[in-house]
Amino acid sequence: MRILRKITTPSNYHHQQQLRSYVSTCRAVVLPSFGGADKLQLRSDVPVPLLKPNHVLVRTRAVSINPLDTRMRSGYGRSIFEPLLPLILGRDVSGEVAAVGESVRSVSVGQEVFGALHPTAVRGTYTDYAILSDEEVTPKPTSLSHVEASAIPFAALTAWRALKSTARISEGQRILIVGGGGAVGFAAIQLAVAAGCNVATTCGSQSIDRILAVGAEQAVDYVNEDVELAIKGKFDAVLDTIGVPETERMGINFLKRGGHYMTLQGEAASLTDRFGLAIGLPAATAFLLKKQIQYRYSHGIEYSWTFMRADIEGLIEIRKLCEAGKMRIPVDKTFPITQVKEAHEAKDNKLIPGKVVLELD
């Protein structure tokens, strides 16, 4: 990598720091076209853009592989991303601040940080130097390694958006998480427990012990049990991380009147991929509105599609929960960034059910 450009720091900022150099090029995993894991290319001379005033340059130490990464690689969101190829995948990051834009005050050079990019970001985190806004990054929990920290932000912020921003959960409420064994579901359980809610979840048998260990009151094996018989009563909110018609029907029927049903599997991207932006996006909006009206009328509940977005308040709260030992997402396996193809293949073939993290030296 080449050290070329410099950025200046205002004289009254960070005790009159000196000029700090940062890289103009670095390694990055590039996706020039959609397809299988073989499409991923590790290149050594990928440009690092100039920082905007609110940007933070992070020297990446670890990034986790999210389902969104493998779906994007395969062509999910094609209508949005195809004109922007080549892409750099990756949402989560943990590392050290290498440089900051002139308006950044929340973090400083040399500080260990973690964070996550928005789902539509084109320049992702599979790179030695990631760029995030100051709303997307915060000091890393001191109790966690970079590998552990990198597994958390995107999944936890997705859960945060659903439970805190949309459903506005509060102490004493009953929350149902459909698919509590995945990263978003597991984060959601911990967020709800920390908020003083009573949590039930569906999951695979291999996840039951760890779900109960973080405070869920009930974990139902959806393969070997009849979920609708095993779970009793009604709920204030349902987060459906699976999002198939059967789980939607079940989730809606478990809700109290006035409750919230939230699914991760909204139709916006798939409809725009199918029909193009001009037709697909309005069609998705109309489809969502129809469902919202339908369920409000038939069941008296609120229906929404949920997705991650940058939320610095949420990220700070997630960091505090991590530091208090109330938020963690287990990492099942790590790969060096040089083995990114093997890591993606392992996720494609479901060889590793839990979180996979890429390490960068």
Describe this structure in words.
With 361 residues, this protein is an alpha/beta fold. The chain folds into 2 domains: 25-140 and 330-359, Quinone Oxidoreductase, Chain A, domain 1 (Alpha-Beta Complex), CATH 3.90.180; 154-305, 3-Layer(aba) Sandwich (Rossmann fold). Helices cover 31% and strands 29% of the residues. It is built from 12 helices and 18 strands. Helix 4 crosses helix 5 and helix 9 (268-275) runs antiparallel to helix 10 (277-298). The longest helix has 22 residues, at 277-298. It is globular, with a radius of gyration of 21 Å. The two termini are 13 Å apart. Residues 2-21 have low confidence and may be disordered.
In short:
The chain has 361 residues and is an alpha/beta fold.
CATH topology of the largest domain: Rossmann fold
Largest sheet entry: 7 strands, mixed
The CATH level-2 architecture of the largest domain is identified as: 3-Layer(aba) Sandwich
C-alpha end-to-end distance = 13 Å
- CATH level 1 class label of the largest domain: Alpha Beta
CATH superfamily membership of the largest domain, which one? NAD(P)-binding Rossmann-like Domain
Quote the beta fraction: 25-35%
Principal-axis shape: globular
Q: Could you say how many structural domains there are in total?
A: 2
**Uncertain stretches:** 2-21
Please give the radius of gyration in angstroms.
21 Å
Question: What is the typical, i.e. mean, pLDDT?
Answer: 88
Number of strands: 18
Percent range for helical residues? 25-40%
The class by helix and strand makeup works out as: alpha/beta
